[in-house]
Specification:
Blueprint (H helix, E strand, L loop, with lengths): L1 E5 L4 H12 L4 E9 L12 H11 L3 E6 L4 H10 L6 E5 L6 H14 L2 E3 L7 H10 L3 E8 L14 H8 L12 E7 L5 E13 L2 E13 L2
Parallel strand pairs: 1-2, 1-4, 2-3, 4-5
Antiparallel strand pairs: 6-7, 6-9, 8-9
């Protein structure tokens, strides 16, 4: 019996997948949902092709599904339902404390008759972030609300300097409420490291986005 992981490409979904694997869950596939209109991960702004590269770097196959705002739940179910015949037992999620998200996940998974696994649930957000960094993961900030995060932090590594910065703000240190989003480029479950070679920062509708126009995989072995 295997599990799949809800995968945005960011730190929380990645760390939840890692923690689930450490607890003995076999993760057979990463499941990523992208906007049908923009071909990018909603809110993160990460392009679909970069998530594919990330899947290659981790070495776990990827299922990528286009979704719309109006039809998201049905499209989510269709994607997951298609994997159930292959001995799927459950799905891993990276929620920390937002009860509304957990309630939705548990309801939808119950309707699909699979288990919802939440390895990060109930942990202190600061402990989650320090655990992510301490475990050897590397991530960069790819989007943020401009009213909370300065432009200079877009593309910046999620490190102790960034942690000190967000702790000074009146926001969740993990960005659980959408204050900022990240892309994981390396870590203990990565076989290859993602190196972003060309980038630029875009401001749109009060949000900063990191546009990654060029990147490559660097073998760690």
């Amino acid at each position: 019996m295997s599990y799949i992981a809800s995968w945005s490409g960011g730190k929380d979904s990645c760390f939840a997948c890692y923690e689930a694997m450490r607890q003995g869950y076999t993760v057979s596939r990463l499941v990523n949902f992208i906007s049908k209109e923009f071909q990018r991960v909603s809110f993160h702004g990460t392009e679909a092709k970069l998530i594919e590269v990330q899947s290659q770097a981790v070495g776990i196959p990827l299922l990528q599904k286009e979704t719309t705002r109006e039809g998201y739940e049905q499209e989510f179910k269709e994607a997951v339902r298609g994997l159930i015949p292959s001995s799927l037992k459950g799905m891993v999620f990276g929620d920390i404390y937002l009860q509304e998200h957990k309630d939705w996940v548990e309801r939808v998974c119950a309707e699909l008759e699979i288990e919802a696994v939440e390895p990060l649930w109930g942990r202190n957000p600061g402990d989650v972030l320090s655990g992510f960094i301490g475990s050897g993961f590397e991530a960069v900030v790819v989007s943020a609300q401009a009213k909370f995060i300065g432009e200079e932090w877009i593309g910046h590594r999620v490190d102790s300097d960034f942690v000190d910065y967000v702790k000074q703000k009146d926001i969740d240190v993990c960005g659980e409420n959408g204050e900022y989003h990240t892309l994981v480029v390396d870590g203990p479950i990565f076989r290859s490291r993602i190196e972003i070679t060309q980038r630029r920062t875009i401001n749109r509708d009060g949000y900063w986005f990191l546009d990654t126009s060029s990147y490559r995989l660097v073998d760690k072995r």
